[in-house]
Amino acid sequence: MATQKKSSTRKEQILQAAERVFAQKGYYDATISDVARQAKVSEATIYEYFTSKEELLFLIPGATARRGKENLEQALPFIRSVADKIRAYVYNHLNFYQSHPDYASVAMLFLKTNRKFAETEAYHDVQELSRVLLRVIREGIAGGEFRSDLDPYLIRAAILGTIEHLVTRQVLLGKPQDLVALTDPLTELIVSGIRAREEAKVLNFSVGWGEGEKREEGRTAPAGKPPVPKGTAASAARKKTSAKPD
Question: Is the pLDDT of residue 236 over 60?
């Protein structure tokens, strides 16, 4: 048991060292020797746990994605509105990337652009984390909080794509400096576009016909069909149409 724990600790130590080296030197310029020096182990020790530099790269996001999924699944059931659940998801991602800049660099610059990564178990872990967001979106649609005519996959792509774009700009340009501060603006931008629309709304208007004539205010009409003032040709035409037998 103690040997297994020691082995797991050493493996994690090497992965953390690889993350730091790949972020600072770049994956393609880094070597196993660089990782060994950062981890304070021999190259031979690294090869006891990993077969190649590429395997090191592909294993970096696995544990991170699993922990993120577990944390969200524990917290989300205690959040009432689906909009706030999306906010929690967005905050979780932006906060993690901001507090782990080495991971952000490796994920955005080297993993996202590597086709082989999609064939790995760690990629499956990342997918499982993104499915948490997909389930939240579907919950909002099923509960009537979000529009039913929208594609949940497209909404998820919009959220994750925006997050990844912001993180990539911070990695490359140092902007925006505060990712976490964008949690509310991003959430509001997304939610305002997918929130369910009312079928009817009260239109606040006032129609004047001149002195001594009637004024109508605040009539209710279905969305897209404005009310027609009484006594007009349009009003008479609508009345005649509505008088037809069913």
Answer: no
